[in-house]
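hey
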């Protein structure tokens, strides 16, 4: 279903609701990712809960690890978690920015037109 160009521009209230929903989805993804990291560092890395939280937070934020891991399983987890965290960070930013970009596209009518014969 295509939106008509003559359709009314969504009100600011609708935009703010969409932006809030996107923000909450991104924060949920980050919280779940942080919980997985904390659990992994605690169980596989043998770190106390607070140190596991610090390491997971630093990796998820792109800063890097704090503690040295000694076991092979902990190192494999840290490697996988670092890659996973990079994807989650980029995906979360994309989710949070999408309502703004969507509004800009609506505002300037830059939505792709499937009637141009190139489909």
């Amino acid at each position: 279903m295509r939106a008509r160009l003559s359709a009314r521009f969504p009100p600011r209230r609708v935009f703010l609701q969409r932006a809030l929903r996107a923000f909450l989805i991104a924060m949920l993804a980050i919280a779940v990712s942080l919980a997985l990291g904390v659990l992994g560092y605690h169980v596989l890395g043998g770190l106390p809960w607070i140190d596991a939280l610090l390491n997971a937070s630093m990796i998820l934020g792109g800063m890097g690890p704090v503690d040295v891991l000694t076991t092979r399983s902990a190192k494999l987890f840290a490697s996988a978690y670092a890659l996973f965290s990079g994807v989650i960070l980029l995906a979360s930013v994309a989710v949070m920015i999408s309502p703004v970009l969507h509004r800009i596209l609506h505002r300037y009518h830059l939505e792709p037109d499937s009637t141009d014969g190139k489909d």
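Residues 33-108 form a domain with the Helix Hairpins fold (CATH 1.10.287). The longest helix spans residues 72-108.
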